[in-house]
Amino acid sequence: MNTPPASVSKTRRISRRLDPSQNLFALGSLRPAGALRRCLRDGYGGAQFRADLLAGIVVGMVALPLSMALAIASGVAPQHGLYTAIVAGGVTALLGGSRVQVTGPTAAFVVLLAPVSAQYGFGGLALASLMAGVILVGMGFFRMGRLIEFIPHPVTTGFTAGIAVVIATLQLKDFLGLTVAHMPETYLERVAALFEALPTARAVDLGVGALTLALLILWPKLTRKVPAPLVALTAASLAAYALAQAYPEQLATTINARFSYLLNGEVRQGIPQLPPAPLLPWHLDGPQGQPLELSFGLLRALLGPAFAIAMLGAIESLLSAVVADGMTGYKHDPDTELLAQGAGNLLAPFFGGFAATGAIARTATNIRAGARSPLAAAVHALFVLGAVVLFAPLLGYLPMAALAALLILVAWNMSDLKHFIHTLKVAPKSDVAVLLACFGLTVIFDMVVAVSAGVVLAALLFMRRMAEVTGARLLSEEHHERADLPPGVMLYEIGGPLFFGAAQKAMSAIHAVSERTRVVVLDLRSVPAMDATGLVNLESALGRLRKNGVFVVLAGVQAQPGEVLAKAGVADEDGILAVRHGFEEGLEVARCAAEAGSPAPR
């Protein structure tokens, strides 16, 4: 009979009444601005707003220099980092699924964005960021937020440690004041170029960088009420200015000296004192300042970097949200957060920004400063906007060495060296191999290769784990608790989900039966789920047993595997197959079939 059992139909009816958020592709259950809605629903008043206002200002002070430093490290002018913090930071905060997450430029993106901007110019970087936003929106729309949680820890640890090494190495140029005619694209060549340029080091830049780094490390030990970056960078700027007044020949390299912009046909130094204005990303400059030529070939070339930006952004954002959950006790909505991150990355390039993601350090600062709702992150974006409009000329006096010192400390914190070494010591060899592979690929090659390989390694590691926990064993020969089964009945227990990578191992264990075997019972009580690969392997095993004239009973079939079997038409066939959701019911069918010499009627 092809009609599915009544229990399967009942399961289908129950599944329709389940919360749609439990369905991976329940598109209609997405709720933009979910975190803000929850905060307003729980009650939001003047006290909460004052707390958010103060937290947003504190985070804005931290984000201001970081946004500029990360933009410079990514190969673009500092104002683009500020525009990213303003647009992406504000949009994501209001639309997101985390109450206290702060979004903006992050160090994790530097090693991925710098090669893109070097090869395709800022226009190409903005376009790749826009494409990544589309991918992130799609990931959120199709409810893939939960899937990101399955990225193995060794993969993320290898990424972050490798990124930290690359970032720290790249900052040596400005920290030491080196003169490098051309910075190569590969890591090993960069190290060689920096080593060759050591004789060009400038004492004034090194001194400013060392002062900044010392204050960044020591100030938090004195107090955390005033952000260390604000104190360190202000002191470094004043020291550089005083030194220049006393010794005019000892000029530290500043933002004003390095960057310029065009306004009303006039070239000006530093950062424009203007808010982000609407523009079309494909009208921005391409490589070597030439106009970007939008074409299918360009989009195809940027697809790989865009995918890597989206994957890394998703991982970084959700990891930051998980950290925030641990610090606050709240629970974020990963799908809504991905949707918001995608919207932020979609809109930022239209206002001179680039790729952004959830920032763990700024989120932690936001929480420690007393943030209560997403409005704190929105205030942080408004603070950065106010700083650009009111104080852009002053920001131009920030020394490049001071910004480099800030990123060196960020890289050190990212590396989490103690945890990296601990993982190498205690993790299984397969995890260590994955960690070192992701670390090495990130450092030696680039993040496009590393992210792609990391996803593949994660899948392979998952398949290996599933194969380790899934299998089949012949209970009728190994155990005596089923002594009530008559002769000619074999009982196999299938343990674990029948997924790709594991199904073949489990089904191949059902070896050829003897001539005396008339009935085989497959105990599926420990199979919570089955995918297409599992179905194919199960059908193959059933085909082998059918050729031998063996009657098969699938006993203890759970809901999800039951639906898969029903859709595939795997149902009761007289003299061939019986499907039972109850285990004891399946055994009774097997007994009747063995004792009667033919399968019992339904």
Strand order of the biggest β-sheet: 5-6-7-8-9
The span between the termini is: 10 Å
β-sheet strand percentage: 5-15%
What is the overall silhouette? elongated
Supply the helix-strand structural class: alpha/beta
Helix content, binned percent = 55-70%
Count of individual domains: 2
Overall strand count: 9
Task: Give me the number of helical elements.
Answer: 24
| Overall pLDDT confidence | 87
Low confidence ranges: 1-28, 477-481
Largest β sheet strand count, sense and barrel closure: 5 strands, mixed
Write down the Rg.
30 Å
Short description:
With 602 residues, the chain is an alpha/beta fold.
What is the strand and helix layout of this fold?
Elements: H1 6-16, H2 34-42, H3 46-73, H4 78-95, E1 103-104, H5 110-141, H6 145-148, H7 153-176, H8 187-196, H9 203-222, H10 228-246, H11 255-258, E2 260-263, E3 266-269, H12 296-328, H13 334-347, E4 357-358, H14 360-368, H15 375-395, H16 400-415, H17 417-426, H18 429-444, H19 447-469, E5 471-474, H20 475-478, E6 489-495, H21 503-508, E7 519-526, H22 532-547, E8 551-555, H23 559-567, E9 577-580, H24 583-596
Parallel strand pairs: 6-7, 7-8, 8-9
Antiparallel strand pairs: 1-4, 2-3, 5-6
Helix pairs in contact: 3-4, 3-14, 3-15, 3-16, 4-13, 4-15, 5-12, 5-13, 7-8, 7-16, 7-18, 9-10, 9-16, 12-13, 12-14, 12-19, 18-19
